[in-house]
Amino acid sequence: MPAIHFVRIGVLGHIGRFAAVDRQQYAHGRRVVCRTSRGLEIGEVLGLAEDASSTANQDGNLLRFVTTEDDLLLARLEKHKEEAYRECVALLSDRQISATLMDVEHLFDGQSLYFYFLGEVTPEIESITRELAEA
């Protein structure tokens, strides 16, 4: 039976239930790679779920610890994330769209960018974020 852990993932700090594919119990505070419905993400283990017998309501799989190689990739992703943030702010300004970009999240899989705005996301904002994600 896989060990079920509570893991915090994403810039918004979602806490979910993740089954360790290697059936290992991971210690509190350890950084781990998880597969979620969004893709591969880095998370932080908060603890073991008390009801570890049920894999129902599971949010994904806990794959492994974060490695040194992963940290190198994370540094590169952070650089791309900052570039996407700056470019989005510039496009909003150039197109005179009054929206507040709060943060950008680049998932560990390197494929997905999520833009977080304060307030309503208009079609113009969706167009800009789609344009940036493709670039």
Identify the notable features of this structure and list them briefly:
36% strand; alpha+beta; two-stranded antiparallel sheet; elongated; 135 residues; 2 helices
Question: What is the structure about, briefly put?
Answer:
With 135 residues, this protein is an alpha+beta fold. It is 29% helix and 36% strand. Helix 1 crosses helix 2 (123-134).
What does this structure look like?
The protein is an alpha+beta fold and 135 residues long. It has helices at residues 68-94, 123-134, and strands spanning 4-9, 14-20, 31-36, 39-48, 60-65, 100-106, 113-118. A 5-stranded mixed β-barrel has the order 1-2-5-3-4. Strands 6-7 form a two-stranded antiparallel sheet. The mean pLDDT is 92.
User: What would the average pLDDT be, to the nearest integer?
Assistant: 92
What spatial form do the alpha-carbon principal axes imply?
A: elongated
Instruction: Count every beta strand, where a strand is a DSSP E run of 2 or more residues.
Output: 7
**Stretches with pLDDT under 50, minimum 5 residues:** none
Strand order of the largest sheet: 1-2-5-3-4
Estimated structural class: alpha+beta
* Main β-sheet description: 5 strands, mixed, barrel
Distance between the termini: 43 Å
Q: Summarize the amount of helix as a percent range.
A: 25-40%
H/E series: EEEEEHEEH
Radius of gyration: 17 Å
Query: In percent, how much strand structure appears in the residues?
Result: 35-45%
| Tally of individual helices | 2
